[in-house]
């Protein structure tokens, strides 16, 4: 008996410390247990929540939450294709943060990725984080798949690892019942870099004749982006992959408008301003991404030749308004933002960008900051740019208003996002963000003749105070 213990004891220690096991066998057992063998398509539905990445009300808050009253997700395994339809409603009242809040009534969303389209080329990376059956299929086909045993929380797992399409290491935890409980990987984000992406599959039940998790939770950047409860599963059903009708998107061309001597509005994407200061160029807003920032910088240098871009004003830290800031850091420009945002940028910009290296990753520089508390005035003795902290603004706690007193121009982000055509009637539901914008203008006693929303209206019209006041029922 003593000899037998000597044999068993080292084996148990080996299992606990992560012994290599056969990955193909582990995945085959999981695929069989989950009913994935021979699966051609699958549809599952239920209700829950979704959360919008990078749209938190302040840098220390979770992503804002929305109700998914109903959802139906269909996917094809060969070839990869998917369709999602859901009805969303406002979950947080009063609204806090971005993500196109507030949603008025029911919002019907339909998203389709058909086989053979450009988006389908990387669809597997998403689907392996959506369904355990998709994970087993994708991992089994990976040429570098490996497996080892691991004990976690008093349970034993087979941990299967491989390299995903985006070149990130991906690992899945398969329990002793051959169920995939967890998958972890990394994805690229132009603001956050190589961010963690994880999903947990729990409360497995036999639904639709197969084992399926009745609870699916995805997290990106440490916070939930999806929390679904599944109530129905259908196997090998067809789906309508016709995308929802939508007008063809026009390719926006960079263009500029002279607002006054040395002050230019740059369009063709999120609005930006270029100001000809005495010894440098000041840019207002570095939104979207590297491509947009590089285009804005090129246009600013064309309009104001012979000067370097040394300062960039950032309205707030939401990803669509900070997505181009790293390009300005690489340019050597100082970031001017509210004090709340500085430590946040310092933290997230220290994250590596290895999956999709951006301009700053290729040309590393330490960011330089100027921070605003309540007010800052930028002037060269001729041009004057006032920066004001917006008070009681639910969209973002560190939001800046930009006012040019000589031009009587106000630059604002997400307080008033004008509709495609001139607003002639007050909306049935008034946005609290728009009410807050008007309250801040009045509190600061700003004489505004023209408003430049960072989210320009589709017709690029000139927006004035009359239209803003119409939006809150004060015309």
**What integer is the average pLDDT?**
93
Number of strands: 24
**Fraction of residues in helix:** 10-25%
Class per helix and strand makeup: alpha+beta
Number of continuous helical runs: 11
> How large a portion of the residues is in β-strands, by DSSP E?
35-45%
Number of domains in the coordinates? 2
Unreliably modeled segments: 1-17
Q: Round the Cα radius of gyration to an integer and report it.
A: 26 Å
In short:
With 475 residues, the chain is of the alpha+beta class. Helix content is 21%, strand content 37%.
For this entry, give a set of tags:
475 residues; alpha+beta; outer membrane lipoprotein receptor (LolB), chain A; Metallo-beta-lactamase, Chain A; 2 domains; seven-stranded mixed β-sheet; 11 helices; 24 strands; 21% helix; elongated; disordered N terminus
SSE topology:
Blueprint: H1 2-17, E1 20-21, H2 23-33, E2 41-51, E3 65-77, E4 80-90, E5 107-113, H3 123-127, H4 132-141, E6 146-152, E7 155-163, E8 169-174, E9 180-189, E10 193-207, E11 210-220, E12 223-235, E13 255-260, E14 263-267, E15 272-276, E16 281-284, H5 290-303, E17 309-313, H6 319-322, H7 325-331, E18 334-338, H8 342-348, H9 359-362, E19 368-372, E20 375-379, E21 384-389, E22 400-404, E23 409-412, H10 432-444, E24 450-453, H11 465-471
Parallel strand pairs: 16-17, 17-18, 18-19, 23-24
Antiparallel strand pairs: 1-6, 2-3, 2-12, 3-4, 4-5, 6-7, 7-8, 8-9, 9-10, 10-11, 11-12, 13-14, 14-15, 15-16, 20-21, 21-22, 22-23
């Amino acid at each position: 008996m003593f000899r037998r213990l000597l044999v068993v004891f080292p084996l148990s220690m080996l299992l606990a410390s992560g012994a290599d096991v056969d990955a193909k066998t582990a995945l085959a057992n999981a695929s069989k247990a989950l009913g994935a063998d021979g699966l051609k398509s699958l549809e599952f539905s239920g209700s829950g929540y979704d959360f919008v990445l990078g749209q938190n009300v302040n840098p220390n808050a979770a992503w804002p939450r929305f109700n998914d009253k109903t959802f139906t997700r269909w996917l094809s395994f060969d070839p990869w294709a998917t369709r999602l339809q859901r009805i969303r409603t406002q979950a947080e009242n009063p609204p806090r943060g971005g993500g196109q809040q507030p949603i008025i009534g029911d919002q019907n969303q339909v998203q389709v990725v058909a086989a053979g389209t450009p988006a389908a080329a990387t669809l597997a990376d998403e689907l392996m984080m959506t369904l355990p059956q998709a994970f087993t299929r994708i991992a089994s086909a990976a040429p570098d798949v490996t497996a080892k045993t691991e004990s976690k929380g008093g349970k034993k797992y087979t941990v299967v690892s491989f390299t995903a399409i985006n070149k990130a290491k991906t690992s899945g935890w398969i329990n002793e019942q051959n169920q995939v409980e967890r998958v972890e990987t990394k994805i690229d984000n132009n603001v956050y870099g190589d961010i963690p992406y994880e999903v947990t599959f729990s409360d497995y039940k036999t639904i639709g004749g197969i084992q399926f998790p009745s609870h699916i939770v995805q997290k990106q950047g440490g916070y939930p982006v999806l929390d679904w409860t599944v109530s129905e599963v259908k196997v090998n059903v067809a789906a309508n992959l016709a995308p929802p009708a939508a007008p063809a998107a026009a390719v926006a061309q960079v263009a500029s408008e002279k607002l006054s001597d040395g002050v230019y509005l740059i369009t063709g994407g999120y609005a930006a301003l270029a100001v000809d200061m005495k010894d440098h160029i000041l840019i207002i807003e570095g939104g979207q991404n590297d491509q947009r920032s590089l285009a804005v910088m090129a246009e600013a240098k064309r309009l104001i030749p012979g000067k370097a871009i040394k300062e960039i004003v950032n309205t707030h830290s939401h990803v669509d308004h900070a997505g181009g800031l790293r390009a300005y850091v690489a340019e050597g420009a100082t970031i001017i933002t509210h004090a709340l945002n500085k430590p946040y940028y310092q933290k997230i910009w220290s994250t590596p960008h290895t999956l999709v290296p951006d301009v700053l990753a290729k040309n590393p520089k330490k960011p330089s900051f100027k921070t605003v508390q309540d007010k800052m005035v930028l002037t060269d003795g001729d041009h004057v740019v006032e920066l004001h902290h917006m008070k009681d603004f639910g969209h973002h706690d560190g939001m800046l208003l930009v006012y040019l007193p000589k031009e009587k121009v106000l630059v604002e982000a997400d307080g008033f996002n004008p509709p495609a055509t001139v607003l002639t009637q007050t909306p049935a539901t008034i946005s609290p963000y728009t009410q807050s914008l008007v309250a801040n203008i009045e509190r600061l006693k700003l004489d505004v003749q023209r408003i430049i929303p960072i989210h320009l209206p589709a017709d690029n019209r000139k927006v004035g105070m009359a239209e803003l006041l119409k939006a809150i029922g004060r015309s």
